[in-house]
Amino acid sequence: MVWTEDLIAHWKATGERPSVAVWTATQTATFLAAVAEDRMYAAFHLIALRGLCRGEAAGLRWCDLDLDRGLCFITRQVQRRDGEIVQGDPKTPDEGAGGGAGSDDGEGVEDASPMSGRGMP
Protein backbone atom coordinates (compact mmCIF):
# COMPACT_ATOMS: atom_id res chain seq x y z
CA MET A 1 0.00 0.00 0.00
CA VAL A 2 1.39 3.41 -0.95
CA TRP A 3 1.27 6.34 1.49
CA THR A 4 -1.26 8.45 -0.39
CA GLU A 5 -2.64 11.70 1.01
CA ASP A 6 -5.91 9.91 1.92
CA LEU A 7 -4.05 7.15 3.75
CA ILE A 8 -1.92 9.69 5.61
CA ALA A 9 -5.04 11.62 6.62
CA HIS A 10 -6.67 8.39 7.85
CA TRP A 11 -3.54 7.49 9.85
CA LYS A 12 -3.39 10.98 11.43
CA ALA A 13 -7.09 10.89 12.32
CA THR A 14 -7.25 7.33 13.69
CA GLY A 15 -3.70 6.24 14.45
CA GLU A 16 -4.33 3.18 12.26
CA ARG A 17 -1.73 2.36 9.69
CA PRO A 18 -1.29 -0.55 7.33
CA SER A 19 1.18 -3.25 8.34
CA VAL A 20 3.20 -2.46 5.22
CA ALA A 21 3.19 0.88 3.44
CA VAL A 22 5.53 2.08 0.72
CA TRP A 23 6.72 5.65 0.34
CA THR A 24 6.08 7.47 -2.90
CA ALA A 25 9.09 8.59 -4.96
CA THR A 26 8.62 12.12 -3.61
CA GLN A 27 8.49 10.91 0.00
CA THR A 28 11.62 8.82 -0.54
CA ALA A 29 13.48 11.75 -2.12
CA THR A 30 12.41 14.01 0.76
CA PHE A 31 13.68 11.50 3.32
CA LEU A 32 17.01 10.97 1.55
CA ALA A 33 17.52 14.72 1.23
CA ALA A 34 16.80 15.13 4.97
CA VAL A 35 19.39 12.49 5.93
CA ALA A 36 21.99 13.41 3.30
CA GLU A 37 24.59 14.32 5.95
CA ASP A 38 23.83 11.37 8.24
CA ARG A 39 26.62 8.82 8.62
CA MET A 40 24.08 6.11 7.76
CA TYR A 41 23.06 7.72 4.45
CA ALA A 42 24.65 4.98 2.33
CA ALA A 43 22.62 2.34 4.18
CA PHE A 44 19.41 4.38 3.87
CA HIS A 45 20.06 4.84 0.15
CA LEU A 46 20.64 1.12 -0.44
CA ILE A 47 17.56 0.17 1.57
CA ALA A 48 15.29 2.75 -0.08
CA LEU A 49 16.46 2.48 -3.67
CA ARG A 50 17.97 -0.99 -3.99
CA GLY A 51 15.64 -2.99 -1.77
CA LEU A 52 18.08 -4.22 0.85
CA CYS A 53 16.50 -5.52 4.00
CA ARG A 54 17.64 -3.87 7.24
CA GLY A 55 19.50 -7.01 8.22
CA GLU A 56 21.31 -7.12 4.87
CA ALA A 57 22.37 -3.49 5.22
CA ALA A 58 23.52 -4.15 8.79
CA GLY A 59 25.51 -7.13 7.57
CA LEU A 60 27.52 -5.23 4.95
CA ARG A 61 31.27 -5.09 5.47
CA TRP A 62 33.90 -3.11 3.59
CA CYS A 63 35.02 -6.31 1.86
CA ASP A 64 31.46 -6.64 0.45
CA LEU A 65 31.81 -3.38 -1.49
CA ASP A 66 33.52 -2.76 -4.82
CA LEU A 67 33.55 1.03 -4.92
CA ASP A 68 35.34 1.15 -8.29
CA ARG A 69 32.59 -0.84 -10.03
CA GLY A 70 29.69 0.39 -7.86
CA LEU A 71 28.79 -3.07 -6.58
CA CYS A 72 27.84 -4.46 -3.22
CA PHE A 73 27.73 -8.16 -2.48
CA ILE A 74 24.99 -9.31 -0.12
CA THR A 75 26.60 -12.23 1.67
CA ARG A 76 25.04 -12.14 5.13
CA GLN A 77 22.46 -10.48 7.29
CA VAL A 78 22.45 -9.42 10.91
CA GLN A 79 19.32 -9.75 13.05
CA ARG A 80 18.24 -9.62 16.66
CA ARG A 81 16.69 -12.89 17.83
CA ASP A 82 15.60 -13.42 21.41
CA GLY A 83 17.62 -10.38 22.46
CA GLU A 84 20.81 -11.67 20.81
CA ILE A 85 22.53 -10.31 17.68
CA VAL A 86 22.98 -13.15 15.17
CA GLN A 87 24.47 -13.37 11.70
CA GLY A 88 23.08 -15.57 8.97
CA ASP A 89 22.69 -16.07 5.28
CA PRO A 90 20.65 -13.48 3.40
CA LYS A 91 17.27 -14.37 2.01
CA THR A 92 17.45 -15.93 -1.41
CA PRO A 93 15.75 -14.31 -4.43
CA ASP A 94 13.05 -17.00 -4.08
CA GLU A 95 12.36 -15.69 -0.58
CA GLY A 96 11.77 -12.22 -1.92
CA ALA A 97 14.98 -10.36 -1.15
CA GLY A 98 18.69 -9.84 -1.83
CA GLY A 99 21.29 -12.54 -2.05
CA GLY A 100 24.22 -12.37 -4.42
CA ALA A 101 25.73 -9.31 -6.04
CA GLY A 102 23.81 -6.10 -6.42
CA SER A 103 24.43 -3.36 -8.92
CA ASP A 104 24.02 0.18 -7.73
CA ASP A 105 23.69 3.48 -9.54
CA GLY A 106 27.01 4.33 -7.91
CA GLU A 107 25.55 6.82 -5.46
CA GLY A 108 24.78 4.46 -2.58
CA VAL A 109 28.00 2.48 -2.82
CA GLU A 110 30.04 5.58 -3.57
CA ASP A 111 28.59 7.27 -0.49
CA ALA A 112 30.03 4.47 1.63
CA SER A 113 33.52 5.59 0.72
CA PRO A 114 35.54 6.73 3.72
CA MET A 115 36.45 9.80 1.67
CA SER A 116 32.80 10.86 1.64
CA GLY A 117 32.94 11.52 5.37
CA ARG A 118 29.88 9.42 6.05
CA GLY A 119 31.16 5.89 5.58
CA MET A 120 29.79 2.67 6.91
CA PRO A 121 30.25 1.86 10.58
From TrEMBL:
Record key words, sorted: DNA recombination
The record ties this protein, via InterPro entries, to: DNA_brk_join_enz, Integrase-like_cat_sf
Q: Where is this region: Disordered?
A: 82-121
Record Gene3D superfamilies: Intergrase catalytic core
Name the record gives this protein: Tyr recombinase domain-containing protein
Q: Mind giving the lineage of the organism this protein is from?
A: Bacteria, Bacillati, Actinomycetota, Actinomycetes, Catenulisporales
